[in-house]
Specification:
- By secondary structure, the chain is an alpha/beta fold.
- The chain is about 40% helix and about 20% strand.
- It contains 10 helices and 15 strands.
- Strands 4-3-5-14-6-15 form a 6-stranded mixed beta sheet, with helices on one face.
- Helix 1 crosses helix 2 and helix 2 crosses helix 3.
- The protein is globular, with a radius of gyration of 22 Å.
- The termini are far apart.
């Protein structure tokens, strides 16, 4: 039994809930899949799954193994990819998903340089304001700002997008400016992110303590650009990316608020499907986008290291995955 293959099978079993489906995905016999899991249980001395006539459920020990197994399999794939990438010149089609506003501002300019450099690669770029299913919709790479909601995806952190709380002079003349984050409870807040999700904005004080404030208002959307338009019109307070509001601040259309409090930055991730080895083209595009974002320090701070979304997102983050302030450029 190859242990990496067995762990790969185990992670797929957890996702599919069926030995037959997991075996079919990995192109092995169902009896082989069952033997591999039994061998893992024997080697570890624990029961990993409970089998019923309709489904397979992980035990507590199985849940613990699943976290480690995903990390080990992903690390092995990355190691193998590092060797393969040195032998393979990127070529073929890369299907890319990206949010509209962020994509127009950062991804499109970067793609031109990428295509000029890699003549053998074609890119099909789809810009939309929803979280795509990487596997079902056949995407090789997805760019997302904010902690991804798909914790099964494997992600590389590319950069951090700074954010700022803003309102128009018209709104401030009518309602006054908040002096602390908790004052936002009395203001009309323009939330954006997943419609219907809990809306909590977080700020860090100068001493490092975090303040979490539930917010409400008369308008919410899955588009940060829509929130920007409403903020310009004096309809409320918005928490938006620095790069999105910089021109409005310079022209006096918006005013920065609570400058003594820092909202956590929105991380920018390149996501790839779970359990799928990235093509040389997808890997090259991810590298190119990381370099492109690092070359724009005034817009987004480059990431210090790679991170595995599927593992880190479960441990929690200062930016919650479903909050309105966690998905800065879904637009």
């Amino acid at each position: 039994m190859d242990r990496v293959d067995a762990l790969r099978l185990f992670t797929r079993l957890a996702e599919r809930g069926s030995f037959s489906a997991a075996a079919r995905d990995l192109k092995v016999k169902q009896s082989t899949a069952s033997k591999w899991v039994a061998a893992l249980e024997a080697e570890l001395g624990v029961t990993l799954v409970r089998r019923t006539t309709r489904s397979v459920q992980l035990t507590d020990a199985g849940q613990r193994l699943l976290v480690r197994a995903r990390a080990l399999v992903s690390s092995f794939d990355d190691l193998r990819g590092d060797f393969d990438a040195k032998r393979a010149e990127p070529e073929g089609l890369v299907r890319l998903s990206a949010p509209v506003v962020f994509g127009r501002r950062f991804i499109v300019p970067a793609l031109r340089g990428f295509l000029e450099r890699h003549r053998g690669v074609s890119v099909e770029a789809v810009f939309n304001d929803r979280y795509v299913n990487l596997v079902d919709e056949g995407f090789d790479l997805a760019i997302r700002v904010g902690v991804p909601v798909d914790t099964s995806a494997v992600g590389r952190k590319l950069a951090d997008a700074r954010r700022v709380l803003v309102a128009s002079p018209k709104y401030l003349r009518a309602r006054g400016a908040p002096q602390t984050p908790r004052d936002l409870k009395a203001h009309s807040c323009l939330a954006h992110g997943d419609v219907g999700a809990a809306r909590v904005w977080r700020f860090a004080r100068e001493d490092g303590a975090e303040v979490a404030v539930p917010v409400r208002g008369r308008f919410w959307s899955n588009s940060s650009e829509a929130a920007l338009v409403m903020a310009r019109g004096g309809l409320g307070v918005a928490l938006l990316a620095d790069w999105l509001v910089r021109d409005d601040l310079a022209r006096g259309r918006l005013v920065a608020l609570l400058e003594g409090f820092s909202p956590p930055p929105a991380p920018i991730y390149a996501l790839r499907p779970p359990e799928r080895f990235p093509t040389a083209g997808a890997r090259a595009l991810s590298d190119h986008l990381a370099a492109a974002l690092a070359a724009n320090p005034g817009d987004a701070a480059p990431a210090r290291r790679r991170s595995e979304v599927g593992r880190s997102a479960r441990r929690g983050s200062a930016t919650p995955p479903h909050d309105a302030d966690a998905n800065e450029s879904r637009a």
